[in-house]
Each structure stands twice: as C-alpha cells, then as structure tokens.
Write a structure and sequence with these properties.
The chain has helices spanning about 5-20, 25-40, 45-50, 50-55, 60-65, 75-85, 120-135, 170-175, 190, 195-205, 220-235, 255-265, 390-400, 435-450, 450-460, 470-480, 495-505, and strands at about 100-105, 110-115, 150, 160, 165, 185, 215, 250, 270-280, 280-285, 295-300, 305-310, 340-345, 355-365, 370-375, 380, 385, 405-415, 420-430, 460-470. The protein is an alpha/beta fold. α1 (about 5-20) crosses α7 (about 120-135), α10 (about 195-205) crosses α11 and α14 (about 435-450) packs across α15. Pfam families: GH3 (PF03321), GH3_C (PF23572), GH3_M (PF23571). This is GH3 auxin-responsive promoter.
Length: about 500
C-alpha cells in the first residue's frame, strides 16, 4: 500500500471534512443572491433593474423575481452581452471578462459567446475541487490517489480576439487548473493545446504507455472513441491492459446510460461512474456521494443563484424560451419528482438566464437533481410531449429486448404525404443483424408505455415511426462534417425536420 497514496487520501479526507460544513442549500442560495446583487449593483444592468432597491427588500428572492425579467441567450446577448464583447466594461458584471466561452452545443448549431469572469473561473475551480475531495467517500484503494487524471475536453489553445481569449469552457477550465494539480493532469499542456481532435487523440494513443491513468473525464462518445484509438494503436484487448489502475470515469454533457454497454466492452471491469454538469455558463452540479441513479448536487454555493420554472408547455414558446409571465420558484419552493426548467444568475453576469436544460429533484434536502432533457428538445409537434429522458428509457428497453448496444440516437418530427411521423436514426454496432421495422414497432410500443401523451398522439395526428439503423461512426462523421469532433460537441438527440433530412441525405 503506497505511503504517498495513503497520505494524499488522508489529506483529502481532512479537506473534505472542511468542505462539508453543515450548509443549508436554501440558506446558502440566499447568501449567493445577496452577494450577486451587491457585486453588480453599479453595473449598467444593476442600475437598469434597481439592484439597490431589491437589496432593501425583506423578501430578496421575490423582489428579484418581480423586478428582473427572464432572459435566454439571444435576448441577453442582443440587449447586453454584445456590449461586453465590444469591450465596454461594467455592463452586466464589474469590469471586463478575460474569457468568452464559445458554446458549441450540438452539431450544426452556431456558437454562442458567453462571458467567463475571473470570479467564474474561481467558482468552477472550487466546484471541481469539491468533486475531487468527494472521492474519499468512495471505496477506492489508497494508491488511486496518486494516479493521473485524463481530461479529454476542448483544446486549451485559446484564440485571442479584441483583448480577450475565446474557447470552449472545458478548454478554458483546463488552461486554469491549479498548480498542484498539474502533476496529475493528462494529457498535459502540450497535447491539450492541439486543435485537431484526431491529431490530439493520436498523440494520446502514442503517449498512453507512459502514463498511469486512474480516472477519465469527458463526454462519453468522445472518451469511447479515444479509448478505441488507444487500444488499437497499442494492440490491446482492453484499456486496463495499459492502464490497470483505471477506476473512475467522470462523465457529463449527455446521459451516460445509452453509452454504458458499448463503453464497458473496452474495459476489463466496470468503473465507478460519476456525473457532472459543466456548462458554458458555469459548473452547475456535481455528484458528491455514492448513489445508484448518479444524482448530482447543485453547486448551490458556487457563484450561481438558481430558479426553477415548472416544465409545462404553457410556460414556453416553440423555441423552448420561457414566457415573460412564467412562474419561477426558489430552491425552497420546489418539489421532488417534478420537472423544471432552470434559470441561473451568475458571477459572469448572466441574470435570470434560461440555460435550456430541464431537471427533476431527487433529493430536495440535499439539492440533488437529475437532468431530464432540454426545453427545446421536447418533441411536441402533434401533442406527443416526448422528452429526452422518456426517449432514453425507451432506448434502454430496446437494448434489453434485442440484446444490442445503442450508443447514439436522434429523432425528428417529419411530414410525409401530409402526415406526421417520428423519424429515428439509431446508432448500434449490431446494425446489420436487426430488422429495422421490428425495431421501430418495439420502440413505438415502449414510448406508448412510457408516455400517455405519446400514446394519445399516436392514436390521432402522429401516424407512425420510421427508423434508420446505422453504425455509431456515422454520427461522429456527421459531427465532423457539420461542426467538429470532440470537445463539448454533443450529438443532438432531437432535430428539426430540415436537419433530419440533411442527416438522412448524408447517410445515403
């Protein structure tokens, strides 16, 4: 039992005890909101919405909610952040940000520019450290705590533009890792700067024998492709032949469950899987304790104030943006099991900002959540009210029924000869052994069982399901064609009709 690993784990235990002071999430959120308003009261935004007056209120949360409207990215940028990009200081947050996160999001979408302040860098760093500290609560061997951590994010080679730096948030975060962490961080600064994803992964494969990796971090699909490259290049049967200490995978960005079966084919034994929620707007949530459903705790004291809009169709427009009069609840008012869209106010100058994700609370007392989907990725063209989590449940049933691994999927409502259908494209390495019509019928049945609104729609305006089965590599080739590989690029699980037609044409 290595002495160094034992000492490191003991240090983490002590530090974790300090992190885990008995903080009440609701009380912590009140402090966060007050600090945000105090910090920004003299900005253009703070003056416009009278933060000084809000701070005098006895009910801070209510006064804030009543005084400040909801913003999505387009409204926030159009009215405020465009000035920040031009270099004007004190617009929505004091000073001028050193960084802008380019939110690539799903393939084919146009990048957004989101300010990242020094306060946000510090908040992301503190939240990340909190997750590292939480590892002492898991049954990991002492020697694990001296192994390398391979973080496969975006390039850390940021682009300079008009006095600031731009890149994806994972690249910005990796370029600001604490000095004490650099000895553990892989692939290291030189490889992490490589812009071309295939070249970066090739270099990782070449260097892999020189590293002793204990943990991986990244979006599942790109981590899986990287592992395949390392295995192929080094002529291995599985990744544990070269990294026997690999024990933890910190996933995020998309649900891990659809990837788990294909992912574990690359291993000698399963890993400890931890979920994270790092968005371009901030580090939203992290898994801090062992639990079966990988629930994450909101970063309730990490420079972000949260509000929650009940996720009901009457509160959102067709693009998933909340209406002006949509009710918003504080953390104290939410209920477990209900689905909500989130609004965030942050130390980067986002205010009552709709981040576009939907969540449900699994443990209100601990402020623990699960991501359930996206506000605009809610297929409701003909009343089917189909969310991503319902789709993921149905996909898992297909995997069990057909004994196959499905690592990617996407769907769109399309019109064919005057009738609406749901067109699915499913990525599975077993694509040549499965009858598409049979799979479509089983998928349709699973969705009817999971969602009564879908069942009603199928009996009326939604005429059927069309399904195309392809190798998962097709999805990644499509990502490269429409955007780029790797980083924070996510394969969209819902598409518009025009995007679906373009994808089908690409496949053909």
């Amino acid at each position: 039992m290595p002495l160094l690993g034992k000492l490191i784990k003991k240090s983490i235990d002590v530090a974790n005890d300090l992190f885990e002071e008995d903080k009440n999430p609701v009380e912590a959120q009140t402090v966060v909101l007050k600090n945000l308003l105090e910090s920004a009261k003299n900005t253009d935004f703070g003056k416009r919405y009278q933060f000084n007056e809000i701070l005098k209120s006895e009910d801070l949360a209510k006064s804030f909610r009543v005084s400040v409207p909801c913003f999505d990215y387009h409204r926030m940028f159009g009215e405020w952040w465009n000035k920040t990009v031009e270099g004007i200081p004190d617009v929505t947050w004091p000073g001028s940000p050193e960084y802008f996160a380019l939110s690539s999001g799903t393939t084919g979408s146009k990048s957004k520019r989101i300010p990242v302040t020094k306060e946000m860098i510090e908040a992301i760093r503190s939240t990340g450290i909190k997750q590292v500290m939480s590892l002492s609560d898991y049954d990991l061997p002492d020697e694990f705590f001296q192994k390398g951590i391979l973080m496969l994010g975006s390039s850390t080679e940021l682009e300079e533009r008009d006095g600031h730096l731009e890149g994806e948030i994972s690249g910005i975060s990796a370029s600001n890792i604490p000095f004490w962490f650099k000895g553990y961080y892989k692939p290291g600064e030189e490889i992490a700067k490589i812009q071309d994803w295939d070249e970066r992964v090739q270099r990782i494969a070449e260097q892999a024998p020189n590293w002793d990796i204990g943990a991986l971090s990244g979006i599942p699909s790109w981590i899986e492709l990287m592992l395949k490259k390392v295995i192929e290049h080094n002529n291995l049967k599985n990744i544990h032949e070269i990294w026997p200490s690999l024990s933890v995978f910190t996933t995020g960005g998309v649900p891990f469950e659809p990837h788990q079966e294909s992912f574990e084919k690359l291993l000698d034994h399963p890993l400890l899987y931890l979920d994270t929620y790092l968005a371009s707007e901030g580090f939203i949530a992290l898994q801090v304790r062992p639990n079966e459903d990988m629930s994450m705790q909101l970063a309730y004291d990490g420079g972000i104030y949260f509000e929650f809009i009940p996720f009901q169709p009457e509160y959102f427009d067709e693009n998933g943006a909340p209406y002006e009069d949509a009710p918003a609840l504080s953390l104290a008012q939410v209920e477990e099991g209900n689905e909500y869209a989130m609004l965030i106010s942050t130390v980067s100058g986002a205010w009552r900002y709709s981040i576009g994700d939907t969540i449900k609370f699994t443990n209100k007392e601990r402020a623990e959540i699960k991501i359930t989907g996206r506000t605009k990725f809610f297929l409701n063209v003909v009343g089917s009210q189909l969310s991503v989590n319902k789709m993921t449940d149905a996909i898992q049933k297909l995997e069990e029924e057909y004994k196959i691994s499905i690592s990617e999927f996407t769907v769109a409502a399309v019109k064919h000869e005057g009738e609406f259908y749901h067109q699915w494209i499913i990525g599975s390495e077993n694509e040549n052994n499965i009858d598409e019509e049979s799979l479509a019928n089983s998928l349709d049945k699973a969705l009817k069982s999971a969602n009564k609104n879908y069942g009603v729609a199928r009996s009326k305006a939604l005429k059927g399901v069309k399904l195309k089965l392809v190798n998962p590599e097709i999805f990644y080739d499509w990502a490269e064609q429409t955007k780029k590989k790797g980083g924070q690029i996510k394969i969209p699980q819902m598409m518009s009709e025009s995007e679906m037609k373009a994808f089908l044409e690409f496949i053909s």
